[in-house]
Design brief:
cytoplasm; Fructose-6-phosphate aldolase 2; alpha/beta; TIM Barrel; TAL/FSA; aldehyde-lyase activity; 52% helix; eight-stranded parallel barrel; 223 residues; globular
């Protein structure tokens, strides 16, 4: 299991990298636009924060294969490091995935809402497929069920592509997706931090400290 940060906020990325086992960062045009600054400077700053080795998933904006390929080269050449090009699973996107894989690009197929979209993307050569969990749930779909079915298809046909589950709003969605075999998840920092939160954990820590202080009149092991 890999955990990614789904954000372009530099402070959130710094905090996430400091405290948690983060494999990398994922972005999309909407996430980047929210930061309201020059996008290239932002992407370069993110790369500086996470380093060259961590995975950085950056999405193209073009919708024609030849332009998708141009943007992919631009992203790779400009940002550098361990780059994954995010490409939506439209017809032109699948064509671009096939062509870019011939050039040894690493690809994340995105905007996935059905198991068959994921299957086609994997057969085209995508390293990751990114199904949107919460967006499906919001239209009375079942994002976790889609992950389960994608995992079954990949196992049945022995495909190397990995599931990068995306679009989460709560811990339960993350938990269920993990149980269904998602190889990785990408989360806003708030959702990631909520994975650790439980009131009994907090009260247990408080009790440990209280009992220690009662016995030893201090709240630490060593000075």
């Amino acid at each position: 299991m890999l955990i990614f940060l789904d954000t372009a906020d530099i402070n959130s990325i710094k905090k996430g990298i400091e405290y948690y086992p983060i494999a990398g960062v994922t972005t999309n045009p909407t996430i980047i636009a929210k930061e309201n600054r020059d996008y290239l400077d932002l992407l370069k700053d993110i790369r500086k924060v996470i380093g060259e080795e961590k995975m950085f998933h950056i999405q193209v904006l073009a919708t024609k294969a030849e332009n998708i390929i141009k943007e992919a080269h631009f992203i790779k050449d400009t940002i550098g490091g361990n780059i994954y090009i995010k490409i939506p699973v439209i017809r032109e996107g699948i064509k671009a995935i096939k062509m870019l894989k011939e050039e040894n690009f690493k690809i994340t197929a995105t905007a996935i809402f059905t198991p068959q979209q994921a299957l086609v993307a994997a057969l085209a050569g995508a390293n990751f497929v990114a199904p949107y969990v919460n967006r499906l749930d919001n239209i009375s779909g079942d994002g976790v069920k889609v992950i389960r079915q994608i995992k079954k298809l990949f196992d049945t046909y022995n495909l190397d592509s990995k599931i990068l589950a995306a679009s989460f709003k709560n811990v339960e969605q993350v938990h269920k997706s993990s149980l269904e075999g998602a190889h990785s998840v990408t989360l806003p920092l708030e959702v990631l931090e909520n994975l650790l939160h439980h009131p009994l954990t907090d009260s247990s820590v408080e009790a440990f400290i209280k009992d220690w202080k009662t016995a030893y009149n201090q709240t630490y092991l060593i000075d």
